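It is worth pausing here to work through a concrete case rather than discussing structure prediction in the abstract. The textbook approach is simple: state the sequence, then state the predicted structure, then interpret. We follow exactly that order.
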Amino acid sequence: MLREYRELPRSVRILCVGSLINRAGSFVIIFLTIYASEELGYGVGFASACLGVFGLGSMCGSILGGQ
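Step two, the predicted structure:
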């Protein structure tokens, strides 16, 4: 599996790594909402609103940025 990845052009590998970093950052937002509500004491409502704003921003960014 790794051999096939190495045969791809360098630009494709850079895009794959960038996509991995982007997806990992999106995964972290879930834990940040838990941290904000439990550890920082902002409450569940604020954490939920932050997650909703992140989702709306992601949708708007996808629409504006295209595929």
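Step three, interpretation. The mean pLDDT is 87. The CA atoms of residues 32 and 50 lie 10 Å apart.
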